[in-house]
Design a protein that fits this description.
Strands 1-2-3-4-5-7-10 form a seven-stranded mixed sheet, with helices on both faces. A three-stranded mixed sheet has the order 6-8-9. It is built from twelve helices and ten strands. It starts with a strand and ends in a 9-residue tail after the last helix. The relative contact order is 0.15. The chain has one domain: Alpha-Beta Complex (2-enoyl-CoA Hydratase, Chain A, domain 1). It is of the alpha/beta class and 260 residues long. A hairpin with a 2-residue loop joins strand 1 and strand 2. Helix 1 packs parallel to helix 4, helix 2 crosses helix 12 and helix 3 runs antiparallel to helix 11.
């Protein structure tokens, strides 16, 4: 079924949710709301025992559609926007007591990266890549990246990744623990579905309780971090550097940041 930039398929107890909004699966508000609706419905559906989250056309997700920021001008309320959108997605992904696999089939950046990192298990195609993205347009961490990146990479590597705008390849992501397996592009979906079906046939109640334990012991600060990210993003969103970053992105030129 396809609607609002989301395609869903269910088979063998596995629900596949595919992000599908041309050209790079960037989110707008209706797409985020549809994703939240699909995840919430899956949480309460007994026939769904495992969830796969992936993208289409060689992209996972480029995150927030920058055109929405441009159209909003100076009026976009970043804190309110995050609490309505990506913070809710990350919270729901972690709250669902069913295994969730991120099949990272291409670039994941910004909020797309945060959503990918919120899944329980991440497998990637060779063509996948990972980019923090926010600092490129003068913004700060959001979508849970302030928690997941230091947790996975360590503070120093996470800082390099976030501060200098580098892109991490699938093989680098494997070595650094962002993903646990990498497959040829043409094999990713089959490998993920076979593993998802295996999990779906397993003791999903026990898996869900184990996920709850992991959330409590390792991610107990996530909710507070999401709230604080939104506060900081509200500040960053009012800076001159952010306005310059968005303008440069849309004009396809290097930004000239002033630290203001």
């Amino acid at each position: 079924m396809e609607t609002m930039g989301i395609i869903t398929e269910q088979d063998d107890g596995v629900l596949t949710i595919k992000l599908d909004r041309p050209k790079v699966n960037a989110f707008d508000l209706p797409m985020v709301e549809k994703l939240l609706a699909e995840l919430t419905a899956a949480e309460g559906e007994d026939s769904i025992r495992c969830i796969v989250l992936t993208g289409s056309r060689g992209f996972f997700s480029a995150g927030q559609d920058i055109r929405d920021i441009q159209e909003a001008g100076e009026d976009i309320p970043y804190r309110e926007h995050l609490e309505r959108t990506y913070n809710q997605v990350v919270r729901v992904l972690r709250a669902i007591e069913k295994p969730i696999i991120g099949a990272i089939n291409g670039p994941a950046a910004g909020a797309g990266l945060g959503i990918a990192l919120a899944t329980d298990i991440r497998w990637a195609a060779e063509c996948a890549s990972f980019s923090f993205g926010f600092t490129r347009i003068g913004l700060a961490a959001d979508s849970g990246t302030s928690v997941f990146l230091p947790l996975l990479l360590g503070l120093s590597k996470a800082s390099e990744f976030a501060f200098d705008g580098r892109i991490i390849t699938s093989e680098q992501a494997l070595r650094q623990g962002i993903v646990s397996r990498v497959f040829p592009d043409s094999e990713l979906y089959q490998e993920v579905h076979e593993y998802a079906a295996k999990l779906a046939a397993g003791p999903t109640r026990a898996i869900g309780l184990t996920k709850r334990a992991f959330n409590r012991t390792v991610l107990k600060s996530l909710d507070e971090a999401l709230t604080y990210e939104a506060i900081l993003q509200e500040i960053a969103g009012r800076t001159v550097d952010h306005k310059e970053g968005v303008a440069a992105f849309l004009e396809k030129r290097p930004p000239i940041f002033r630290g203001a």
